[in-house]
Predict the 3D structure of the following.
Amino acid sequence: MPPVLPPAPPWHQYLPAVAAVLTAALLAITPATTAAEMRRSVGLAAGQMTTNGIDEVFRPDKTDFTDAGFGGIIVAWEVPLDDPRWHVGVEVQANQHFGRNDHQEIVLPVTVRYRPDRPWPRVIDSFAFGFGLSHASETPKTEIARRGESQRTLIYFSLETAFALDDDGSALFLRLHHRSDGYGLLATDSGSNAFAIGLRRAF
């Protein structure tokens, strides 16, 4: 009989190592970056789930919030490109879901952030987009209710607008938190959308 191999550890245990590799890669493509230029931040966010697809979520007359939400922490690293208005980075998110959902979620996206110059109002800190993977500790119940099935790991993207609170890097941000099959990249046709609000502090 072939030897019985022990089960492989859950892949999400490797997320910190993956984050480190991605950060190193980002530093490699921005050779002028120094440790002082790297922007680190930590944030707290809370979100409310909707029943909408991505085609309806930005329509106020269609947005339908549901009895499910989440709260979590976001740790991020960003480095400037040649144009200092643009930054690329990585995030690690850890979220606890509650209400109709009761699972934990780890999210690891690569981010692109744009910080506009004047004449933009001073209160506008930045606009950002994130793309990566979201892994849930169990299949989200709201996604099953919406499409009949789902899966624990889905494609993730975010859209964010941030507002400066002071000159030391504090910001209030509003964010779309989106999970999906990536238009067929994954086998299961499912996903979810949430709106989140949070506070971020650079360090």
